Q: What sequence folds into this?
C-alpha cells in the first residue's frame, strides 16, 4: 500500500494516510473525554493517538519506489532513502500501536465478560501482527502482500467498530 504514494497519483495515497491519521488523532482526543467501557481510560486513547501519529508520518515521509512501482521502476527492493526509512519507522509506530490497542481492548473486554468483543479484538490484533511479520519475512511475496492488505482492512474495521461502540456506550 505504501508504494501507492509514489508516482503521479501518489498524492492520493499520501492524502489518505494523513487524513486517516488525523481522524485517529481526533478519535484519541474523543476517547479521552468520553468514558468507554472496554478500552481503558488512558491506554486506548494513547495507542489510538500513536496509530494516528504513525499514519500522519507515513504520509509525510513517502515510501521509496520498488518492485516495478511506479511503472518503470526496476524489479527488486531498490535503495532505501532517508524518507523511506522514516516511512518504515512511521509504520512500526502505527502498526505496533494498532496491535497493542486490539490486545488491550481484548483483555479489557474479557475482564468485563464480553467474550465476543474480546475475541474480535484479539483476533484482529493477532491477524494484523501475523500478516505484518509475514510481509517482512517474505520480502514482498504477493500472497503476503495480499494478506497484509486484508489485515489493513481488518484493522480499520476493528478501529471503526470499537470507536463507534465506545461512543455509543460512553
A:
Amino acid at each position: 500500500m505504501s508504494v501507492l504514494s509514489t508516482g503521479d497519483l501518489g498524492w492520493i495515497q499520501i492524502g489518505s494516510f494523513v487524513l486517516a491519521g488525523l481522524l485517529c488523532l481526533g478519535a484519541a482526543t474523543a476517547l479521552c473525554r468520553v468514558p468507554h467501557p472496554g478500552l481503558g481510560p488512558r491506554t486506548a486513547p494513547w495507542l489510538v493517538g500513536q496509530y494516528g501519529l504513525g499514519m500522519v508520518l507515513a504520509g509525510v515521509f513517502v515510501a521509496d519506489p520498488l518492485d516495478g512501482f511506479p511503472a518503470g521502476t526496476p524489479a527488486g527492493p531498490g535503495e532505501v532513502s532517508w524518507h523511506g526509512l522514516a516511512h518504515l519507522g512511521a509504520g512500526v509506530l502505527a502498526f505496533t500501536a494498532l496491535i497493542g490497542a486490539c490486545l488491550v481492548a481484548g483483555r479489557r473486554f474479557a475482564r468485563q465478560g464480553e467474550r465476543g468483543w474480546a475475541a474480535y479484538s484479539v483476533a484482529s490484533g493477532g491477524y494484523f501482527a501475523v500478516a505484518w511479520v509475514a510481509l517482512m519475512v517474505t520480502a514482498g511475496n504477493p500472497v503476503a502482500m495480499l494478506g497484509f492488505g486484508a489485515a489493513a482492512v481488518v484493522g480499520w474495521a476493528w478501529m471503526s467498530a470499537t470507536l463507534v461502540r465506545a461512543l455509543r456506550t460512553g
Remarks:
- The chain is about 70% helix and 0% strand.
- Residues 106 and 122 are 5 Å apart (CA to CA).
- The chain has a mean pLDDT of 87.
